[in-house]
Write a sequence for this structure.
């Protein structure tokens, strides 16, 4: 499977996943659950979820492999400039290891081909502290045009359960009643707590 050149997509403006605003289910979750702590959004893209998390009192940063995405996030949210970092979730810098109370997932996972899912999980394990929360708006079985392989890639609830079957427990799980157009019923809010190192 060809690796995806994410930076090229941002340079070309081919960012069909970006809705110009933060995830509605995440906004609803943070409104209902006043949580605090150090948070990271892997694959943050243009940074909307980082901005949302900081508005809700989290000490949040965004990490993305694409320098263009990070530059665009910094342009959109200049007050949060220092909070956007170029980096690879699969090989996060040492200073990020086990430093975060919260990891926020929004369309990073569904952008990855299935053969990279175990590296995604390993990356989360490296940055989230034991006892920390992985708050995910997981994009389940995204619609794709016929013949279009991805991204986004097919990702089932079963795959999600399997990926985090060991070392995490589910503490919340529901289909949100709010969604961007076209994603209705396809997203799942699942919050996982890391129970082992
Ligand atoms: C489908 S986009 C979603 C972006 C953003 N979360 C949003 O909802 O608009 C996937 C993002 O993950 C980033 N990404 C892919 N692989 C990554 C990796 N290994 N480490 C960090 N970011 C990665 C891409 O550059 C891209 O911005």
């Amino acid at each position: 499977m060809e690796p995806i050149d994410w930076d090229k997509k941002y340079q070309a403006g081919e960012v069909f996943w970006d809705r110009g605003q933060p995830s509605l289910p995440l906004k609803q979750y943070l409104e209902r659950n006043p949580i605090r702590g150090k948070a990271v959004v892997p694959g943050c893209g243009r940074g909307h979820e980082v901005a949302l998390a900081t508005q809700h009192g989290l000490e949040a940063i965004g990490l993305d492999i694409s320098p263009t995405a990070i530059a665009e996030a910094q342009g959109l949210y200049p007050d949060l400039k220092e909070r956007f970092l170029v980096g690879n979730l699969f090989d996060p810098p040492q200073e990020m290891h086990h430093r975060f109370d919260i990891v926020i997932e929004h369309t990073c996972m569904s952008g990855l081909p299935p053969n990279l899912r175990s590296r995604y999980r390993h990356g989360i394990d490296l940055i989230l502290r034991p006892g920390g929360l992985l708050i995910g708006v997981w994009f389940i079985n995204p619609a794709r045009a016929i013949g279009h392989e991805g991204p986004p890639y097919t990702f089932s609830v079963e795959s999600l359960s399997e990926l985090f079957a060991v070392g995490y427990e589910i503490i919340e799980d529901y289909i949100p009643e709010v969604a961007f157009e076209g994603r209705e019923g396809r997203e799942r809010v699942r919050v996982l707590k890391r129970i082992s190192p």
Observations:
- Strands lie at 38-42, 59-64, 84-86, 100-106, 128-139, 168-174, 187-194.
- The chain has a mean pLDDT of 94.
- Residues 38 and 59 are 5 Å apart (CA to CA).
